[in-house]
Amino acid sequence: MFLERINSPEDLRKLSPTEQKILASEIREFLIEKISVTGGHLASNLGVVELTMAIHLAFSMPRDKVIWDVGHQSYTHKILTGRKDGFDNLRKFGGMSGFPKRNESEYDCFNTGHSSTSISAGLGMVRARDLDKEDYSVVSVIGDGSLTGGMAFEAMNNAAELKTNFIIILNDNEMSISENVGGLSNALSSIRTADAYTGLKSEVVNALESIPVIGEKTVKQLRKTKRGIKQLVIPGMLFENMGLTYLGPVDGHNINQMVAAFNHAKKLNECVLVHVVTRKGKGYSPAERHPSRFHGTSPFEIETGIPKDRNGKANYTDVFSTVIRKLGERNPKVVAITAAMSDGTGLKRFKLKYPDRFFDVGIAEEHAVTFAAGLAAAGYKPIFCVYSSFLQRAYDQVLHDVCMQNLPVVFAIDRAGIVGCDGETHHGLFDLSYLSTIPNMTILAPKNKWELSDMMKFAVEYDGPIAIRYPRGEAYDGLKEYRADIEYGKSELIYDETGSDREKSVALFAVGSMVAIAEGVREDLKAGGYNCMLVNARFVKPFDREMINRMAKTSKLLVTMEENVLIGGFGQQVLDYTNENHIDVKVINIAVPDRFIEHGSVSLLRKDAGIDKDTIVSEIIKEMD
């Protein structure tokens, strides 16, 4: 096997073209085998095997700098840079990240995880290179899905001014996570299918070269005017019109073609975009047929592609999917919005049943929020379904366009809290903090799957900005018997021990996913001889001051529990209020500490962050004693 010989890019360069093709097949087999065990991003990585090899053949990393947009497609890059042994612990706690990490390898020059950032980062490195009067290549690799993000266009607009070399590689596989949408996708499609241009060029060149004396001179002149011919033949020539030099389309599975294109791009003192066409999931038929399903996959059976961990239980996204479809049926003003995540956020059924009221705006969260504001201002009830970590990208729009106008936009925030193996760029640990700072915003978190349904119904009837945040994974089905109506700003007292000895009494105020953990904490405290009341906070903003007052009268200690960073979260709001109004009551805030949380299983990461049951019980007993 050639893969066994590869420990650095230098080893790749020793292989012949035939051997490189064999290596590409071996890399795909390796990725399928390893990801079937650990889970990870499969389809995107299978699609860029040859592209990554061509980059390492044409450029000399780590001197040359290559920035992978999002970075979930960097697995082959990790293999070629001496990290193939790390795949047994891919995305596990303490193991190798599924994204580029500067502290993991000198070949990773920039950390990524969210889309549309690579061109901006690359442009910054280009300017630093030139200020230092150094000579190396800077390459930003970006997908066609990420290119729909406004930040990418801001960066390209700035890069068009360059009089120095900067290379953008557009990895065009017609997909982001879901199928690409919009004008840019259509423009790229027209370029991909412009056979007329390719055919015209070869036919014209062949015909002219056959003319004695003048033929060769005419061909040279024709090459000088190739930009003009592209303008005439390829509709729009979007990138050339922006001031970038365009090369392509190039076959993204032909290493020689790509290396030639990259070497040509290196010679130009300007910003060059090389358009590379790849196939997502290439080499594994289940991923080729269902690239969305294999974008980020759990462990699966190689023969069928079927997940290994099917337990038949609904997750929170499944519950939301059912609820929003029913809400759409009951209210014709309900519309759903996604930023290229229709499958991931559970909108597929709504999309199929109400296609006219479903809007996929592409990877453009900022636009999605203001688009929702426009719909709300025009009398509709938009529900923007988004992952917590991606909503961060639209903070200004939430503040300025939605909340400042007090518009009735519903934010359905999936993947809130610790999400697990994707790590620090994907944990949803900040939403309670950044949303709580905004006037007019209301924030809720459900304790179980039934409460998510009830909160969504409440949100659609509410006349103002409202956010419901819920975690990734299996929906909690405990506490079914506790299903009081949702009342604005009111919490839910689940276990009441009012009247017990105040000095031995603790009141737990748990937010969303922490209610299930709080049940275990309560059981341990009861076994230790303490009286313990459990309050389901429900509302983070506004929080229930009356319940705080009630519990402060009967409890020595109030404990807030949230799967969010401590600073600016629910607990700090409660602490401030209690310090002002109940100076004889002690408050403990259980929350994620002020640091970024790495990748790993949710249970391990909760323990590492100190928000697991055993750690919480220990903290409470220490304070009570």
Chain-wise SSE layout:
Layout: H1 9-13, H2 17-38, H3 43-47, H4 49-58, E1 65-68, H5 75-80, H6 118-131, E2 138-143, H7 150-159, E3 166-172, H8 183-192, H9 195-209, H10 214-224, H11 226-233, H12 238-241, E4 245-251, H13 255-266, E5 271-277, H14 285-289, H15 316-330, E6 334-338, H16 348-353, E7 358-360, H17 365-377, E8 381-387, H18 388-391, H19 395-403, E9 410-414, H20 431-436, E10 442-444, H21 449-461, E11 466-469, E12 492-495, E13 505-510, H22 514-527, E14 531-536, E15 539-541, H23 545-554, E16 557-565, H24 570-581, E17 586-592, H25 602-609, H26 613-624
Parallel strand pairs: 1-2, 2-3, 3-5, 4-5, 6-7, 6-8, 8-9, 9-11, 10-11, 13-14, 13-16, 16-17
Antiparallel strand pairs: 10-15, 12-14
Helix pairs in contact: 4-13, 6-7, 9-10, 15-21, 17-19, 22-26, 23-24
Give an overview of the whole structure.
- This protein is an alpha/beta fold.
- Helix content is 41%, strand content 15%.
- It is built from 26 helices and 17 strands.
- It has a 7-stranded mixed beta sheet with strand order 7-6-8-9-11-10-15, sandwiched between helices.
- The longest helix has 22 residues, at 17-38.
- It is elongated, with a radius of gyration of 27 Å.
Estimated share of beta-strand residues? 5-15%
Low-confidence stretches: 192-201, 222-233
User: Oligomeric form of this entry?
Assistant: single chain
Main sheet, how many strands, which sense, barrel? 7 strands, mixed
Q: Looking at the structure, what is the overall shape? A: elongated
Rg measurement, Å: 27 Å
